[in-house]
Write a structure and sequence with these properties.
CATH superfamily: Fumarylacetoacetase-like, C-terminal domain
Oligomer: single chain
CATH topology: Fumarylacetoacetate hydrolase, domain 2
Helix content: 10-25%
Number of strands: 15
CATH class: Alpha Beta
Radius of gyration: 16 Å
Order of helices and strands: EHEEEEEEHHEEEEHEEEE
Strand content: 25-35%
Strand order of the largest sheet: 2-1-12-5-6-9
CATH architecture: Alpha-Beta Complex
Amino acid sequence: MKILCIGRNYADHIAELQNETPADPVIFAKPDTALLQRNQPFFLPDFSQDIHYEVELVLRICKNGKNIEEKFAPTYFDAIGLGIDFTARDLQSQLKSKGLPWELAKGFDGSAPISQEFKPVAEFADLKNIDFRLEVNGEVRQQGNSSLMLHDFSKIISYISRFITLKMGDLIFTGTPSGVGPVKIGDQLVGFIGEDKMFDLAVK
């Protein structure tokens, strides 16, 4: 399986990082070694002093596809979970300033915690109206809704599949709303879709 991620998909997050708004989805990847499951703790790496959380809805691909038309895209994912795209912001800034790829800032070990359970698509009344949030030490830090995405699930799947064949079991992180910030040892991160708790992990 592979982990594909969408950057700059919420206008308020683009504004808070002072980035340009892209015409097309921004795609990057994380290796499977980035996965963190079963509420395992996240250990701060020694190569960064500024690790940020970014909570995101995560699509689970259920069948193989390439050059998928948007109208057929909803048939290619069967469940939605929640994850965190941990980002080494200092390392990312250094690499971007040199015009270099920034995969190291996104794809390091443990940088992609995901919920153990994924909710079947059939349980959602409206895929364009999904509330989700991240609480850090009991305080809401990020709140988002899928209606605020610049590129919705169907556009994301269709666009990716023009370049990269999607396969059953692949995961797509769909972008983060505003409110990202640093984590420190001792923090407790709890993520929700609606009022359903999806993950609860400690930073060590």
